[in-house]
Every structure is written in structure tokens, then in C-alpha cells.
Amino acid sequence: MAYTPLRLLSFEEFIQQYGDQSRYELANGEIIDMEPTGPHEAVAGKVASKVSLEIDRQNLPFLIPKSCILRPSGDEATARRPDVIVLDEAALMNEPYWQQEPVIVRGESVKMVVEVVSTNWENDYARKVEEYALMGIAEYWIIDFRGLGGIRFIGDPKQPTFTVNQRVGKLYEPQQFRLGENIISPLFPHINLRLDDVLPR
């Protein structure tokens, strides 16, 4: 049997072909079908709602777009779609794609990203941790509401975990929270939030 190699896409080709299809990401030129579930979307929606309320309460110049693509590295064919992204509205004037496409290439434009863990948890705990840190994003939340991540990442026994990654130097320092614990966020120090608040019913 002959092996036919998969055709890899450039970042620009991905934007043209899949830019308006929110279930797809690009990783090193390969299309990734994220296959979101209802509970996954419920958690992401609740997090966005809680964060939006805190942005309004503090009257911060931030926004949460309905959809947005991150380009973690300019020389790689990678395009990420965080489940929730908080942008600095004033910084968007420096984004080269923003006026035509909801694409972010500068880490300074991003205040925070949130990923809700699915069956492909390795991407959220390993690959995206590295990509978002290298991009310069100061805060990255990982919400593992079903406790799917590896023991190395969420401990043993595995349980629902909310991880707040804060960028220190070039790397993230994680802090984990379990059910019943108040989330501590450097970006939103007064937010009233627990993992319990965002679980699907």
C-alpha cells in the first residue's frame, strides 16, 4: 500500500479556507477538528459570562470577542482558537489582521486565554502552555471540569481541576484549584469565582 502524505496548509490558507469555521484549529500545518460537546460549550460560556461581569464591574478596557484566532508564532503554520480570550481593546490598533479578520499575532493584545479541557487534553496542558507562554500571554486558565488530564498535570486521584497559569519570565507557574475553592487570578484579583460556578448542570 502506498502512503500519501497529508497536504499541510499555511496559516494564510487556513484563514481563507477555515477562518469562519470555529471548530477547526491548525497545528504545524495540520487541520485539527476540535469536536466540541454541549457540556464543553456550557463551561466556556459560563466562564466568559463570569469574566465579562468582572470586566464591567472594574470598568476595564478589555473585550471578549465571539470568535478569535491566535497565531502563536509568525513562522509556524499554527492557528489556535481559545475557548475564551480576553483582549486589550486599545492594543488592537497594532494588530495587522484585525481590521479584516479576528486574528491576533501580538501577545500584548491578549490579557488572558481560557481552554476547557476535552479528550485531547495533552494540547491544553503541554503544547498550548508552551505556545501561549512564548507568545507572551500573561495568564492562561485551564478548566478540566471532568478531570481528564494526566496525573502529572492534575494529580492522583484525578479530579476536576481549575489551573491558573501565570507567566513568570518566559514560563508559566501553575496554581491549581479544586471544587469549593475560590479561584485566585492575578488579572482579576477580586473575581468571585469557583470551579463549581462553571460546571455544566
UniProtKB/TrEMBL annotation:
InterPro entries: Nuclease_put_TT1808 (IPR012296), Restrct_endonuc-II-like (IPR011335), Uma2 (IPR008538). Residues 11-194 form the Putative restriction endonuclease domain. CDD domains: DUF820-like. It holds the Pfam family Uma2. This is Putative restriction endonuclease domain-containing protein.
